[in-house]
Design brief:
This protein has about 150 residues and is mainly α. It has one domain. About 80% of the residues lie in helices and about 0% in strands. It is built from six helices and no strands. The protein has helices at about 1-15, 15-20, 25-30, 35-60, 70-100, 105-145. The termini are far apart. It comes from Asticcacaulis excentricus (strain ATCC 15261 / DSM 4724 / KCTC 12464 / NCIMB 9791 / VKM B-1370 / CB 48).
Amino acid sequence: MRLLSLCLASASLLAPGMALAAPFTPLTIFQHAAMPVQVLILGLLAATAAAIAVCIRKLLQGPSLAGSSAFLKGLRLGGPLAGLVGAAFGTLNMTIGLANVKTVPPVAVLAPGWAEIASLILLGLITGSVAVIAHWAVEARIDRAVLGE
């Protein structure tokens, strides 16, 4: 029994990454991301929340039709583009890192970077989709108010 515990202890010392490995979640992806990527993620989340807030405010505003449609219109394209810029930044960092090592790292080492890239693309698409739906709802409300239907 003592020999088994010594073998397990030595194995954990030889492979510390395996002994301390934890499953990746969206929170750990955010925590391990570079500072510009973290700022971009927070910005996309804030833009998504702002699009929802603008849509609710415009729909509850009644007959007044002033303002905020330009924000939603711009976010329809800006959200996905921001996500793609962040993904390109992550891909650039990964390729520079790969170019600077002599041996190709295993997929398990590269997987967190790919998860970060995929999450940025997904978050940009979600932000753009929310903006498209919100803009559609606001424009439909404006059309109904103008046409008197």
